[in-house]
Amino acid sequence: MGGPEAIRAWIERGSSTRRGGPASGTGSPLIRVAWLGRTSTRDLQDPTLSLPRQLRNSRAALPENTAIVAHFYDVESGRLALDARGHGTAHEKFQIPIPRDGSIQDLLEEAQRPDRRFDAVICEAIDRIARTTYFSTRIEYQLEQAGVPLLAADEPIRLDVSPRKAKAATQVLTRRMKQGVAEWYVTEMLEKSWSGFEMHTEQGYNIGKPCYGYQARPVPHPVPAKRAKGVKKTLLEVHPVEGPVVRKMFHWRIVERLSYQAIADRLNADLTLNPPPSPILADTAVGHWTYSSARDVLTNPKHTGHMVWNRRARKGAGRNRPNPVEEWVWSIEPTHEALVDLETFVQAQQVAEHRERSRSAAGTSRHPQAQRTYRLRSFIFCAQCERRFYGKPSKGINYYVCAPKKPYRAADHPASVWVPEAGMLEGLGDFLSDRVFGVYRRELLTETMDQMDAGAEREREARAASLRRAIAEAETKSKRLLHSLELVDNPDRNFIRDLNERRAELHGQQMDLERQLSRLETEIQETPNPDLLTGLPVTAVDLTALPDALSRRLFETLRLEIHYDHKTELATCRVTLTSGSIGDIADMAEVLPGRPGGTTLRTSEEEGMAAERKTPPPTFCGAPPAGATKHSWSFPRR
Fold first, then answer.
1. Bridging pattern class, strands 627-634 and 570-577
2. DSSP 8-class letter at 387
3. Do 427 and 388 belong together in one domain?
4. How far is CA 392 from CA 399, 420, 482, in A?
5. Confidence band, pLDDT 50/70/90 cuts, at residue 602
6. How far apart are CA 388 and CA 378, in angstroms?
7. 99 with 113: CB under 8 angstroms?
8. Fewer Cβ in 10 A, N or C end of the chain?
9. pLDDT, tens digit, 9 for 90 and up, residues 92-112
């Protein structure tokens, strides 16, 4: 009859058979272990040293009846989401003296198979699994569900007991604390790194290749040790050739409201005068301007003289995608010479709202349905839903149509609104002949402004008062923070750090509010200037005889907007004149065809306005004031 020894031997033979390994010389079953390693070059680690060290420490911590039979490792950040882990190829760039059986994804996949090559997984430390507690515990749980324990070389290892008893309560507590510390450590490093980049930006230092229009000006590194090694930082200075190109691009974008592609086409006409940008990788250069290169120049806020950082995401799944504007980090004061002022930059960004989903080129497009030319394409909007009308023919007649899909259509919006092009052109011609190039345009504009100024002025004053209250509230909060510091007898380091961070946040909010208030006060002081009209000739306009290319250029320069209200059957027209666009409009007006029997081209002096022109022309600071005029006309429906 067998005793306890026979039962124990039978159990050991069964365990050895289930694990698939032969017994060692001592009679204990051989336990097969897979090693899992990870290192990140973002932490300036050397994978050729770090990974062999991790393997050596893991092997030294294992009992005698174990053997490492598979090697899985990656060179990647431990902060990546689990689904994104193990897909990189960074390990191929290094001569790592360890055979590689796959990535962490391969390990997790093999752990689910009944014919897996290992019985347990070991790593040097639990933070090598992941730097985020959630992903680390998730990986550990998946392995345990598959019957594979996760071991760490810096923790007690027990393989001679049942898997249900292998983890002691204290061991679980210790591991969870280490996982939390690992996540805390990387989060703290990111916070400090972020603050360092903010200070770097505030001091005006550039990161990476200088943007188009500027060139790098190296300066000695402020840290003596790095300065001794020849390390330098860079500031920006205007490029003698590219700088004027940037100013010219902003002028075209704002005054003529050209699209990015139209600006690129103009620049490509003379690549010697307008050299294209050179990318970081020389072999990717195309040798000419493109839509994207023009867009990159016109959307880069560094041209305002401020240093700006964090415009694009550099990590994770959204790498190289634009960040929201509110996440950008701006220097408080300008740090280099500005190519355009802030107001000009904002105006250039607003053009995109007008240009969105609208082709700027004249004539027909290559679309099979675009067989006709629509003279007012992209300039007519629905007064109710604010959508842009599109051109559509019916029985040989050109119409402009607003027909939103049913889910996006308001209850009182018709299924479709049709406006004939002929009526629009006739009404617009009357408007331009009377209000822009007409004899009595000055009197008509003054009358319109008298009706508009009162409400707009009240709105601006109310907004200014609201900003002043918000600034005062931010100042009060900052004073309360200082008062709270006085009430604490022995403030610790964490308290002082949190207080400084909150003060910096309030200071940033206050500076932003003060900038908004300054712009608004400037807007209040700069009222619309009717004198701009005196720079235009007097002539009648016949839009039916105007070539499409010239009419589109004229409409863009005038910033034409026509809003049609189907309820009242009224079309309201609005144009905006600025000091920068007056010259271009005057040049185009000289070749505008007049109406038969209409007024011929005359100057303002010939119309008896010489007395008004005795005063010098107005001068402008920053963004020029705009003289805007509106007019409405009606015509029957389709």
1. antiparallel
2. P
3. yes
4. 5, 10, 66
5. very low
6. 6
7. no
8. N
9. 889 999 999 999 999 999 999
Of 180, 173, 104, 176, residue with least CA distance to 143? 104
Q: Are residues 183 and 224 in the same domain?
A: no
347 occurs within a structural domain: yes
Closest CA to 127 of 169, 80, 78: 78
In this prediction, residue 407 has a pLDDT band, given cuts at 50, 70 and 90, of confident
With 80 as the cut, is the pLDDT of residue 219 above it?
A: yes
Long-range CB contacts (within 8 A, 24+) of 394-399 = 394/418, 394/638, 397/421, 397/422, 398/372, 398/374, 398/422, 399/638
Domain assignment present for residue 404? The answer is yes
Per the CB < 8 A criterion, the answer to whether 65 and 29 are in contact is: yes
What b/e sequence results for 569-592 when a residue is b if at least 16 CB atoms lie within 10 Å of its CB, and e otherwise?
eebbbebbbbbbbbebbeebbeeb
List the 380-382 sheet strands across, edge first: 380-382, 561-565, 570-577, 627-634
Within 10 Å of residue 18's Cβ, how many Cβ atoms? 11
C-alpha separations of 411 from 321, 380, 407, 564, 638 in Å = 38, 22, 10, 18, 21
Longest alpha-carbon distance in the chain: 133
Total domain count for the chain? 4
Q: How many CB atoms lie within 10 A of CB 553?
A: 20
CA gap 428, 441 in Å, rounded = 15
What is the residue whose two structure tokens read 């990161």? 207
**Average pLDDT of span 338-342:** 90
What beta strand segments (E) does 297-366 contain?
A: 308-309, 329-330
Collapsed DSSP state (helix, strand, coil) of residue 611: coil
Residue 63: give the domain boundaries: 4-189
Calculate the CA 89 to chain-centre distance. Answer: 28
